[in-house]
Structures are given as C-alpha cells and as structure tokens.
Amino acid sequence: QVQLVESGGGLVQAGGSLRLSCAASGRTFSGYAMGWFRQAPGKEREFVTTISWSGGSRYYADSVKGRFTISRDNAKNMVYLQMNSLKPEDTAVYYCAAHTRTRVEVPPQRAAEYNIWGQGTQVTVSS
Fold first, then answer.
1. What is the pLDDT of residues 23-68, one digit of tens each?
2. How far apart are CA 92 and CA 58, in angstroms?
3. How far is the C-alpha of 79 from the C-alpha of 23, rounded, in Å?
4. Which residues, in sequence order, are bridge partners of residue 35?
5. How would DSSP label each residue in 96-117?
C-alpha cells in the first residue's frame, strides 16, 4: 500500500512562490496517476492539478493554469507542485493523492477517483 507525505507548505506573501513535495512509499507508485487537491476553510475540496503515470499528460484547474506546475520523479517516488504568483485565494490545505488504477494515460480530475491521500500541508498566502 502506497503512503503519501506532503511537505513544503508555509506562509508566503502574495506574488511569492512555494514548492510542495509529495513523497510516496511503495514500489507501485510509478504506475499511478497523481493529483493535487486543496481545501480552504468552509469550502469543498477542489481539484488543482494531475499528472499521468508517465508524466506525459497534465491537467490544471483554470484558477491555477499558468501559475502552477506539477511534475514527478518516478525514480525518487516524488511528486512536486511548483506554485508561482501566489494569491490570497490560493490559501488552503493542499493534499497529494494517488489514483491506483495503473498506467492510466488520462489522469482523473475528480477527488472521488483518488483512493490514497496524504495528510495535507497548509499554504497561507498573505495580501
């Protein structure tokens, strides 16, 4: 069973950058699509971005397109989220998640299709 641990969250001023990391345990990680989701206080968890098992397909929410970049290093069992030009509305707990149907070329964007989740890391953007 893969386990996920996020890190890299923190407090940053608007316009700043953060890089989140998600460390995965388990040998089957490289076959999974991986996603980042976020949840702000009082709001539902929302899709941020996802990447296919090979890294060949990536999708982004409109709200982060052009500012956030997802990447992965299967040799290191790592997934990253580079966040630039951060805005106060990006403030949320960010979760890394795995879609465990292996070698899916079109990674899903619905949270319900991800069945392994990390504990989350807080990102706070001050204005």
1. 999 778 889 999 999 999 999 999 999 999 999 999 999 999 999 9
2. 21
3. 7
4. 50, 97
5. EEEE-STT-SS----GGG--EE
